[in-house]
Amino acid sequence: MRLSQLFTRTLKENPKDETSLNAQILMRAGFIDKIGAGIYTFLPLGLRVHNNICRVIREEIDAIGGQEILMPALTPKEYWQITGRWENFDALFRLKGGDNRDYALGATHEEIVTPTVQRHVFSYKDLSTAVYQIQTKFRNELRSKAGLLRGREFSMKDLYSFHTDQKTLDAYYEIAQKAYFKIYERLGLLDITFLTYASGGAFSKYSHEFQTVCDAGEDTIHICDKCKVAVNQEIIEEQSACPLCGNVELRAEKAIEVGNIFKLGTRFSEPFGFNYLDESGTEKPVIMGCYGMGPSRIMGTIVEISHDDGGLIWPEEVAPFKVHLVSLRQNEATDLLYDRLQKAKIEVIYDDRDLGAGEKLVSADLMGCPYRVVVSAKTLAEGSVEIKKRTSQEVELVKLGELINYWTK
Ligand code: ATP
Ligand code: MG
């Protein structure tokens, strides 16, 4: 993509009408646009980042047998009444249709996925199975002051698994946990993301959250440094020691909940009457698990933990482009490099604008792509270009003929 063609502009300073750091930087860099409290537009660069996060999540959830579907965001009241959540789900956005019926904007999808899968699954032979979606969710959050960390409209990956018994649920739950850590590893969050014990439901003692340590977080977790797990503040009274080793010297940290997994048991299959026939032909309730993760919140989290005064610093897997190619009044030579990079399938944003070096280098830092390549008369005279990593101060000179090899070898 050529920067001269991009319709969005960067700002010189953080926008004043935004209080959260992640949204301020993303708005300054032209990645998102604010529409209202907790309501944002993803602009071209921001959408590329969000899509990359979703791609990583898709690959890892597909790898554990999740089948992708897309459920409606508009959901009739009757489904929520079956589970009692029309009244009990505080953050539900409720609205009236022209048919005078009531609807909710999907805040989560147990009420929709359960009857959907029920229409297709009848016997033990059809189980286990797991379906997921990546979709926009709506919640009437009271406070939406944390930018992408707490949207009123936000993205969620929600996976639901269906089993004949507790044992197969437990096994899948372990598999999902591992997949979650693979995702956080690829997104550059592994070292600061802790499996966190939180209160469970009727079906299990604990549920598990994945909490990323960050001062902008709204949660407090208590970390066991020996086991690399944590306990959520909300259960610390009943569980004041590490649930794995009994260590009582836990370290309190602010953290962001970037995912959570939950053994639902029969909480939803029972009200919907979702039973299966076992091997002896007896009807039994299906046992369920649910696994949530927030791509847009993860995007905000990455910004909170990975930026400097110059702007964004994206990990490679999520960066909008791998290379930020800067022409310092050398567009003829740089056009050729741009073509070569594209032919080699290296994702590149090309600053071909008629601006001075200072402004272009500031833009490159602000947008935060992992590699900056500068083409100037000085280095071209020796047949080379400058490469700098966003995370480093060092500049390398690379010969024109070696440029593609820099990434592909
Ligand atoms: P929180 O306690 O932070 O409100 P939650 O327990 O309500 O989160 P879930 O209902 O389990 O979260 O949603 C699954 C995932 O969706 C969360 O782990 C989080 O990553 C994301 N998520 C939840 N609410 C929001 C929101 N308002 N904005 C952005 N992401 C969200
Ligand atoms: Mg919530």
Description:
With 409 residues, this protein is an alpha+beta fold. The chain is 29% helix and 31% strand. It has helices at residues 21-28, 44-63, 77-83, 85-88, 110-118, 166-186, 269-272, 295-305, 331-343, 357-367, 377-380, 403-408; strands at 32-36, 39-42, 67-68, 74-76, 93-96, 102-105, 129-138, 153-163, 193-199, 206-213, 219-224, 229-232, 251-265, 275-277, 283-285, 287-293, 307-308, 311-312, 323-327, 348-351, 371-375, 384-389, 395-399. Strand 14 (275-277) and strand 15 (283-285) form a beta hairpin. Adenosine-5'-triphosphate binds at residues 108, 139, 141, 150-151, 154, 156, 257-260, 292-294, 296-297. This is Proline--tRNA ligase. Its EC number is 6.1.1.15.
User: Between the first and last Cα atoms, what is the distance in angstroms?
Assistant: 24 Å
Residues in β-strands, percent = 25-35%
- Which whole number gives the mean pLDDT? 97
Helix content: 25-40%
Query: Low-confidence parts lasting 5 or more residues at pLDDT below 50?
Result: none
Please identify, by name, the CATH architecture of the largest domain: 2-Layer Sandwich
Main sheet strand line-up: 9-10-13-11-12
Number of strands: 23
Heterogens? adenosine-5'-triphosphate, magnesium ion
The CATH topology of the largest domain is BirA Bifunctional Protein, domain 2
Please give the count of helices: 12
Enzyme class: ligase
EC number: 6.1.1.15
GO molecular function: ATP binding; proline-tRNA ligase activity
Keywords: Aminoacyl-tRNA synthetase, ATP-binding, Ligase, Nucleotide-binding, Protein biosynthesis
